[in-house]
Amino acid sequence: MESDNTTIDYKAQDKTHKKSLSILLTTDEIDGRPIYIAGNFNNWNTQDSNYILKQIGENTYCYEFNLDFTYPEPLLYKFTKGDWSAVEIGEHEEITPNRSTYLKSGVQREYVPKWRRNWLPFKPNFLPQVVLLSDEFEIPQLKTTRKVWALLPHDYDDSEERYPVMYLQDAQNLFNENALYGNWEIDKKLAVMAEYQIGKIIIIAIEHADDDRIKEYSVGKTVLGKGQGKKYIKFLTETLKPYVDENFRTKPDRKNTGIGGSSMGGLISIFSGLKRPEIFGKLMIFSPSLWVVPKLKIDVEVENAEDTKIYLYAGGEESEQMVEQVQKFRERVINSQFVKDKMKINLSINKLGTHNETYWSDEFPKAIEWLFFSTKD
User: Fold this and answer.
1) Cα–Cα distance for residue pair 42/46, rounded to 1 Å
2) Which helix (H) or strand (E) holds 12?
3) Is the pLDDT confidence value at 2 over 60?
4) Distances in whole angstroms, Cα of residue 65 to Cα of each of 44, 60, 103, 268
5) Which of 67, 138, 149, 297 is most buried by a 10 A CB count?
């Protein structure tokens, strides 16, 4: 009997030894979205499908690390609902410190009183520096001028760091509080991202051409007439980008250079990425006006496009064709000879999304994080 008891105790001890760490989370706010754990074990990736908590009660969730998981010393982490726009916050909506533990087995109990909503509130001291490059920045290719801004990280002057750059269209609607249809509030979104020590990036915002916007953002023959997009792309690549790289501390290579926009601004960003993939390695395409060029060709002028990343977004309430057109575009890109094994595409669909700045604003930080700062696909 004694021998049998010894054997049973040994097996129990062995079983206990092999147990991994379980994180048990309770929260008062339930809205149906999955909860993720992000930390120093996955480069703080908030969209990592390998780290989704399992709901085990009405307001209780659990995550159990794999038996072969390598624990950092200590394990640092936070809880999110898929991105930093919905990260945990304190009872008084304050940013909370990173959670930590040295446990490698057993149960770690945690509690989240509230979650951040739509990237707000923000702290003014983290707002980016907004620099007007010129009231009349020359566009020799189109024989005109335009307002162009640079949004620099809030601590740009206190550092020697170099930054990736995103060129965005339709500057009138990006951070202007008086914009007719609202704005993306990218300054406020960048402030919240900076507070969490992610998203340090330079944004170059170029005003659109008002009455000539459609013409300027179209390339070749379209259903709206002949566009001047090729000249506009030459302005971006041959005039504006060299100026920005010369006057700011940028990372000028294609892996750290992006272009983006919404609607027609999304369309010209597609053209720019396809025409000049050796310059633009990141594309942020929101609700693109693909109907303007129903026979858009997926071809490029060079083959150097490894590691290109495209963030595609569409809203289900924009039009009858928007989601379908974006999905078809994604499939055509994936199946094209040019793209094979070279591009990564993240398709985001908001079934309730309409064609306006509010939804593009919500999508902006998610796109920036995935394009420039996520190591996961």
Assistant:
1) 9
2) helix 2-17
3) no
4) 16, 17, 11, 44
5) 149
Lowest mean pLDDT among 78-82, 216-220, 344-348, 371-375: 371-375
Q: Where are the domains of the chain?
A: 2-115, 124-373
CB 365 within 8 A of CB 85: yes
Contact 322, 309 (CB under 8 A): no
Q: Dump strand ranges (E) for 116-263.
A: 129-139, 144-152, 165-168, 202-206, 221-222, 225-226, 257-262
Question: What are the DSSP E strand ranges found in 173-280?
Answer: 202-206, 221-222, 225-226, 257-262
Task: Give the span between the Cα atoms of 366 and 361, in whole angstroms.
Answer: 10
- Across residues 174-188, what is the average pLDDT? 85
Q: Pick one of 3.40.50.1240, 3.40.50.1820, 3.40.50.11540, 3.30.1330.10 as the CATH number of 124-373.
A: 3.40.50.1820
CA distance 242 to 162: 15
Q: Give whole-number Cα distances, 19 to 12, 77, 229, in Å.
A: 11, 20, 60
CA–CA dist 281, 309 (Å, integer): 6
Residues 342 and 92: their CA atoms lie apart, in Å, by 45
Write the pLDDT tens digit of every residue in 279-315: 999 999 999 988 887 677 766 545 566 788 999 999 8
Class of domain 2-115: mainly beta
The pLDDT value recorded for residue 236 is: 98
Asked whether this chain's domains 2-115 and 124-373 adopt the same fold, the reply is no
Tens of pLDDT, residues 101-152: 999 999 999 999 999 876 667 889 999 999 999 999 999 999 999 999 999 9
